[in-house]
Write a structure and sequence with these properties.
heterodimer; A: 154 residues; B: Rossmann fold; five-stranded parallel beta sheet; 18 helices
């Protein structure tokens, strides 16, 4: 069976702590994701996401605080806007936009970490391995160079 | 720079080693580029474990350390101290979380868990390779605390901090301090009168030279960070100038409008202009605009006419005050689970089915019946009273899943006090378990059963309904297997404690975490029980979870001592994980300034560049992701580090 590789960017205050809670509660979930801790989901630049796909990730999962709950006031709104801009660009590159998932998971939602992770792994599993050669053909560009362009903030 | 990283893989007893092949992990990572030393040990956090780290730093001349163990929330500080003790800069020590994020959640597949642990550690090796040696940033600190909530926990915290020599602002949303404890009759297990032990503290808090008491006020907004919070407080319009009011009470006496009293839990009335109870502090009235005839029709105005000091002011509006504080204690307390949600027990529909707080008022010497137990419907003295435990609590399907902790004890007290009051009455307690953990608690329960003949029935009640002026209680005694049917005169529901209705909204303003049911989350359930994960916020009382008075007071004092420990230093030392701008590369586009939530970036118009003020930057990284020229970076979490970490996680 295809085992997708998932990169997870979790914010320190909510989702990372939620994943800690899942652990403390001994909830079990798919081992496909590796979590990188960032202070805020708003720290995530579209280039980080594109880099992950280039380096072999089949999916990227971003977890942040619920809207209104951001520890840094509104960093998660920045994330939301960046992700919604990036998704059509991923499609244009030939990367299914479902391979990028943004969800709000609070420090109290260990159950949600489990559900979101498992569902995302299954979604990506159904999509199959990311074929970046195809993406290159469709976009006519090298992934990292596209990253430079997409990474710019209007 | 040549990297010489040390990797220390913790077994955590069998917590990690039972799932992850720690020997294999340590062996495999010994060959990873940049790793100079790799080992495993049973408990890395123990003294011998920490010494292993210290010794290895010296012996192998390590430039960085990755302790692969639990969540950084738990032991990052521990190992940073260990590193610093061996002269390795503390910011060159990182944790790889292979317990909460790996062994505990992937118990079914040891092979995959081991592979994942290796990947997690690799990401942290890549991170630490590029970590700079940093020093904490020292910033001035305001040695003044804010306490939110004027119940017993807030009062205790405020008094302890103030007695230690620091100024305190105590904010209470109702017109008086005292909280729910002021409503209680007598308190278990000693049966001290609640008022007798509480009211002196209420007075003390209002007269303390270091405490600024702000009642009928709410937190409107909080900004800043530990050591330097700015708090905007809404002083709600009381329509009484409480500074000049002398508390004579004439207005209250003459007010023609009566409404249900919140303090008496609806069992008695109050006036539209009122003090919540006779011992209120401050003992000065507020006017309830929603129920005032003057505000309804423009007529009446009696209170204004009669006030001898002209304190009644119908034109008063909400005011806003600004306070600067260095630490915040959150003690917002609890509410009872709404009785109307308990339809199966006649909650909200049968008059003689009352809440536990209503029963406290019926028992209280200052209550609506003067301390005689009389039922609400007809004022008769009830001869058969049924007390139900676990109403709403321990019921994950319908209500809340947790144990409210105090109900077993207060219902025992209720039954006992009822028997002291009505000698020929019979008290029944339906219970799931009787939980009497606490000093003198079990003995108290034994006294209720043996000396006061309170009858305990093990089983849940299925139905409560009215019949012929009685409240019928149907249940099962699960010890005998027999059906129990009691024609009661009064039923008391031991309702679950839930967080105060304002708690979740306040948590959003404070930016602190709440748990599943809305109680404030502590940084660690065992080792940091009175601190929030967000620095500078401390938790006290039932706002953090159901607890009784001794526990609430103990936690309040603990919070106060944490605040005092914070204030023991002149300056606050902040994490240096802040953003910085490469001045040579900055184009001065100011995008960063527009996204910074803290106004931490200033524009140098002479040089045409933006500059980050380290003392203000919180390290959220919003500016970094927004910078179009990748000129801003975060100390010890640069883009370069993130890229390397991503690559390491994906490497086969």
């Amino acid at each position: 069976m295809f085992e997708p590789k998932i990169i997870c960017f979790f914010c320190k205050w909510c989702t990372y702590a939620g994943a800690d809670l899942a652990g403390t509660s001994r909830k079990q979930y798919a081992p496909n994701g590796v979590v990188l801790r960032v202070n805020c989901s708003g720290r995530i630049d579209p280039q980080h996401i594109l880099w992950a796909f280039r380096e072999g990730a089949d999916g990227v999962l971003i977890g942040g605080c619920h809207p209104g709950d951001c520890h840094y006031q509104d960093g998660n709104y920045n994330t939301m806007r960046r992700v919604s801009i990036l998704k059509p660009m991923l499609e244009a590159l030939g990367i299914e936009s479902e391979r990028l998932c943004l969800d709000w998971i609070s420090a109290a939602e260990g159950d949600k970490v489990v559900r979101v992770m498992n569902e995302f792994v299954e979604t990506v599993r159904d999509l199959g391995p990311l074929d970046l050669d195809l993406a290159d053909r469709l976009s006519g560009a090298e992934a990292p160079e596209s990253a430079e362009v997409v990474g710019q903030e209007s | 720079m040549e990297h010489r990283i040390g990797v220390f893989v913790c077994h955590c007893g069998s917590n990690i080693a039972g799932v992850v092949d720690v020997k294999r992990v340590a062996k495999q990572l010994a060959d990873y580029p940049g790793v100079a030393y790799s080992t495993d040990y049973l408990y890395m956090c123990s003294d011998p474990g920490q010494n292993m780290v210290k010794d290895a730093i010296k012996e192998h001349n390590l430039t960085g350390v990755v302790v692969s163990a639990c969540s950084p929330t738990l032991h990052e500080a521990t190992f940073r101290r260990a590193g610093a003790a061996a002269d390795l800069n503390q910011y060159r020590v990182e944790m790889a979380n292979i317990r909460e994020h790996c062994s505990w959640v992937h118990r079914g597949d040891k092979e995959k868990a081991t592979e994942k642990a290796i990947k997690i550690i690799k990401t942290m090796i890549e991170k630490v390779k590029q970590n700079e040696a940093l020093e904490p940033i020292s910033v001035p600190m305001t040695h003044r605390a804010l306490v939110v909530g004027g119940g017993i926990a807030g009062i205790q915290a405020a008094l302890d901090i103030a007695n230690a020599g620091h100024d305190v602002v105590l904010v209470e949303k109702t017109p008086s301090v005292g909280g729910h404890m002021a409503q209680l009759s007598e308190t278990f297990p000693t049966l001290d009168c609640s008022q007798c032990i509480l009211t002196p503290k209420m007075v003390e808090v209002s007269q303390h030279p270091r405490i600024k008491l702000l009642t009928y006020c709410e937190i409107d907004d909080v900004s800043g960070y530990v050591g330097n919070f700015k708090v905007r407080i809404k002083k709600k319009a009381a329509y009484v100038n409480r500074d000049i009011c002398n508390g004579c009470g004439l207005c209250v006496e003459k007010c023609p409008r009566t409404v249900a009293s919140e303090f008496e839990e609806g069992l008695a009335t109050r006036k539209a202009i009122y003090t919540p109870f006779a011992q209120a502090v401050p003992n000065k009235p507020v006017l309830d605009r929603d129920n005032c005839i003057y505000f309804e029709s423009g007529k009446c105005g009696i209170c204004q006419k009669i006030c001898p000091v002209d304190a009644v002011d119908y034109e008063q509006t909400d005011e806003f005050l600004e306070e600067e504080v260095g630490a915040i204690v959150v003690a917002t307390g609890f509410d009872l689970y709404p009785i109307v949600n308990i339809g199966e027990y006649g909650g909200g529909s049968i008059e003689d089915v009352v809440t536990s707080l209503q029963f406290e008022r019926l028992l209280s010497a200052s209550g609506p019946t003067g301390g005689e137990v009389r039922r609400p419907s007809d004022g008769e003295i009830p001869k058969e009273v049924v007390f139900l435990t676990c109403v709403g609590s321990r019921d994950p399907e319908n209500h809340v899943s947790y144990c409210s902790k105090v109900c077993c004890m207060y219902l025992t007290k209720h039954a006992m006090l009822y028997k002291h009051n009505v000698h020929d009455g019979q008290a029944y307690v339906f219970y799931m378990d009787v939980r009497t953990g606490g000093k003198g608690y079990e003995e108290f329960y034994q006294r209720a059963t043996e000396e006061d003949d309170v009858l305990y029935v093990r089983g849940k009640v299925s139905k409560v309904f009215e019949e012929d002026g009685k409240v019928m209680v149907w249940g099962v005694d699960t010890l005998t297997g027999r059906k129990v049917e009691i024609a009661a005169d009064l039923v008391v529901l031991g309702l679950a404690m839930v967080p105060n209705s304002t708690a979740v909204e306040l948590s959003k303003k404070l930016k602190i975490q709440v748990s599943e049911w809305g109680f404030y989350s502590e940084a660690h359930p065992k080792l940091r029980p009175v601190e929030s994960l967000a620095p500078g916020f401390y938790l006290a009382g039932a706002a953090q979870g159901p607890k009784d008075i001794p526990d609430a007071v103990a936690q309040a004092s603990a919070s106060a001592s944490k605040v005092c420990a914070l204030f023991s230093e002149k300056e606050y030392h902040r994490e240096p994980i802040v953003a910085w701008i490469d001045e040579d590369e900055c184009s001065g586009c100011k995008v960063c300034i527009s996204v910074c939530p803290y106004d931490a970036i200033e524009f140098d118009s002479q040089k045409g560049i933006s500059r980050i003020q380290e003392a203000i930057c919180e390290g959220c990284g919003a500016c970094i992701a927004a910078c179009p020229s990748a000129t801003i970076q975060q100390r010890n979490l640069t883009d370069s580090q993130l890229y390397k970490m991503v690559s390491a996680a994906l490497e086969d």
